[in-house]
Amino acid sequence: MDVDDLGTIVSIWAHPDDESYLAGGVMAAAVAAGSRVVCVSATAGERGTDDPVRWPPERLGPVRRWEAAAALAVLGVREHHFLGYSDGSLAGLDPAAPVGTLTALLDDVRPDTILTFGPEGMTFHPDHQAVSRWVSAAWAAAGRPGRLLHAVMSSDHLEEWGPTYESWQVFMTEERPTGVPVEDLALHLVLDGTALDQKIAALAAMHTQTAAAIALLGDAYRTLNAAECFVAA
Question: InterPro entries of this UniProt entry (predicted)?
């Protein structure tokens, strides 16, 4: 499957930066091809910090909204919706309201493609996993408009970067993702040149979330983020 085949896209995630890390290249390429792209963030990511004294939620939330606006502007995405839920709370919410909101959005947009997390949420983050459940339920309630694609790690990526993720304590439980062979992916976009420049510029706009990794990895940060991988739900 090529990006040109994706048509209208709805891209649904838990926190600002999820969409840029996991689907920034796909969304930018779709926009460049003339497709409509609608992005949804369930929260503002206001608790996404290791330094809550410096970055209390009431300060970080607005900053991350600004960062998201800047990143999506770089990617060319003009439609972005925040659901307004509290960061870290999604797994404990009654799913009726968010599923209803997402069902209404899918009914309105009638996308050809929906991008979101798989059941494991990439890193087993409870917010990510909740969004995956909500999207699956909303997709079913809306009559399954278009194809539903789940973000995954390829087996090659996990082999190369798994030790780095372990050292960064990325995974939030004792569980670990299973890498998907490249030949089994429904969508595999490998970015280079200007397309990768664009994605990295979007990620760099999310300074509170990416600055440390960019400083640590240098040019390797480009390699880390060059591929975007999805399987059919």
Answer: GlcNAc_PI_deacetylase-related, LmbE-like_dom_sf
Q: How far apart are CA 45 and CA 65, in angstroms?
A: 8
Alpha-carbon Rg for the chain in angstroms: 16
| Encoded amino acid at 100, one letter | G
- Pairing relationship of beta strands 9-13 and 113-117 according to DSSP bridges: parallel
Domain parsing of the chain, residue ranges:
3-232
Q: What is the CATH number of domain 3-232?
A: 3.40.50.10320
Task: Tell me the pLDDT tens digit for each residue of 169-178.
Answer: 999 999 999 9
- Helical ranges in the chain per DSSP H: 18-32, 57-75, 96-109, 121-124, 126-141, 155-167, 193-205, 207-217, 220-224
Tell me the backbone φ, ψ of residue 38, rounded to 5 degrees: -115, 125
What is d(CA 110, CA 183) in angstroms, rounded to the nearest whole number?
29
Q: CA distances (Å), 69 to each of 27, 35, 44, 66, 182, in order?
A: 14, 19, 11, 5, 32
Question: How do residues 88-129 score in pLDDT, each as one tens digit?
Answer: 999 999 999 999 999 999 999 999 999 999 999 999 999 999
